[in-house]
Design brief:
- By secondary structure, the chain is of the alpha/beta class.
- The chain folds into two domains: 152 residues, Aspartate Aminotransferase, domain 1 (Alpha-Beta Complex); 248 residues, 3-Layer(aba) Sandwich (Aspartate Aminotransferase, domain 2).
- It is 44% helix and 14% strand.
- It is built from 14 helices and 14 strands.
- The strands form three sheets. Strands 2-9-8-7-6-3-4-5 form an eight-stranded mixed sheet, with helices on both faces.
- The protein is globular, with a radius of gyration of 22 Å.
- 44% of the residues are buried.
- The structure holds pyridoxal-5'-phosphate.
- The site of pyridoxal-5'-phosphate has 13 residues, from helix 6.
Length: 408
């Protein structure tokens, strides 16, 4: 029998099944018994709303030269055609990026997080994150053993006053962070939006205290009421902001198309780091992505999916009002894919997940989004993936479970 542990690096040893892996395994087990699991967990796409026909057309119309390019190795910064289309797409969101030097296509924006971690983080480096924050960003950064400084979020995103206090304390000790990571538009998990004055204040702080800003923006396009919030990158005059986004929430997570817009110095470093990981992002997906942008399918898809998610958000809110305990608190997401719930202290959402799964519904326990391991009374609910009927049924099941626990 192999002694597996002997072979692992420290990094290898640190990889343990995350909460989503466990939920997927539980779903398999339930399926074997003929039972279904309603998933209010990950940020998956609405399965009935993919742009299947336009994608079929694009592939049917591709010429021989297109296929030759798709099937060949490509540039480590991405196909020039896709970078040009992404540059045009971003210009509608007030970001200017030279497609030749200031853009890199990544294999999903998760790879962007990995690349950024690789080129910036040495063991012990200080990085700042809002809390709660995207769990897979935390795990990407953790690979390189940074020292995290945590700044709380309020109803308007990152608390800038708390950040200033943290930065001043660090400065007194002769330290400064490498970067701050945040999801300022329809945050994951809280769905908060940082207002313009905070975005500008953050840029000023970055200049004053000399750090970079990593702006992760998968959700900004999915805005139910207002136009998309202007990205922080649009206000960046010195190249301190690294902006990342993705096709995953607006077109398809299966295509694995993400990108980073940043200063050309950073792009060329990341391109070399990417060569070690996957050489280049796959050509078929890049071709499709470029054509979907060129034919304006992406913009139409954003309008379409936004309407669908708004309706699902409404149903979720109605169901929660009807079934969730009166002591629970949540805010109404104005965009994005998630609803963040605060339960009374008595409810431990981490330990209750198992019971919920046994009753046929899964959510993500809020503890996964905190570095502090002792916060257990939050949960994140996703409304993009489940059907309307499943949202109603799932929330009714969860409501009963939580109400019963409160009565115990
Ligand atoms: C904030 C945030 N960043 C990055 C990602 C990674 O997305 P992808 O790799 O599919 O582009 C996600 C996915 O849910 C996310 O929520």
């Amino acid at each position: 029998m192999l002694n597996f542990d002997r072979f692992y690096s420290k990094l290898g040893e640190s990889f343990k099944p995350g909460v989503l892996t466990e939920i997927v395994l539980a779903a398999f087990e339930l399926a074997k018994e003929g039972k279904k699991l309603i998933s209010l967990t990950g940020g998956s796409y609405d399965p009935n709303s993919f742009a299947v026909e336009p994608i079929r057309e694009i592939l049917a119309e591709a010429g021989l030269d297109d296929w030759r390019e798709m099937l060949q190795y490509g540039s480590n910064t991405g196909s020039m055609k896709l970078r040009s289309e992404l540059s045009r797409f971003m210009s509608h969101t007030w970001i200017n990026a030279d497609p030749k030097s200031e853009l890199i296509v990544t294999t999903g924006s998760q790879q962007a997080l990995d690349l950024i971690s690789r080129i910036f983080i040495d063991e012990g480096d200080i990085i700042v994150v809002g809390e709660p924050t995207y769990l897979q960003a935390l795990s990407a950064f953790k690979q390189f053993n940074p020292q995290f400084k945590v700044v709380p979020l309020d109803n308007w995103g990152l608390d800038i006053d708390a950040l200033r206090v943290e930065l001043s304390t660090l400065e007194k000790n002769g330290k400064s962070p490498k970067f701050i990571y945040l999801v300022p538009s329809f945050d994951n998990p809280t769905s908060t939006v940082m207002p313009k004055d905070r975005r500008l204040a953050l840029i000023d702080l970055a200049e004053e205290f000399d750090f970079l800003i990593v702006e992760d923006n998968p959700y900004g396009y999915i805005s139910f009421e207002e136009p998309m919030p202007t990205p922080i990158k649009a206000y960046d005059k010195t190249g301190r902001v690294l902006y990342m986004s993705t096709f995953s929430k607006i077109v398809s997570p299966g295509l694995r198309i993400g990108w980073i817009a940043a200063h050309k110095e950073f792009i060329s470093k990341m391109a070399e780091a990417k060569s070690n990981i996957d050489i280049c992002t796959d050509g078929l997906s890049q071709y499709l992505a470029a054509e979907l942008l060129r034919r304006n399918v992406v913009e139409r898809q954003i309008d379409y999916i936004t309407r669908i998610y708004k309706r699902k958000r409404d149903i979720l809110l109605e169901s929660m009002n009807a079934h969730f305990p009166k002591q629970a608190e949540w805010n109404e997401p104005k965009g994005g894919l998630f609803l963040w719930v605060k339960m009374p202290e008595k409810i431990n959402t981490t330990t209750l997940l198992k019971e919920a799964v046994n009753k046929g519904v899964a959510y993500i326990p809020g503890s996964n989004f905190f570095l502090n391991p002792n916060i257990h009374n939050f949960l994140r609910l996703n409304y993009s993936y489940p059907s309307i009927a499943d949202i109603e049924e799932g929330i009714s099941i969860l409501g009963k479970l939580f109400n019963n626990k409160l009565r115990e």
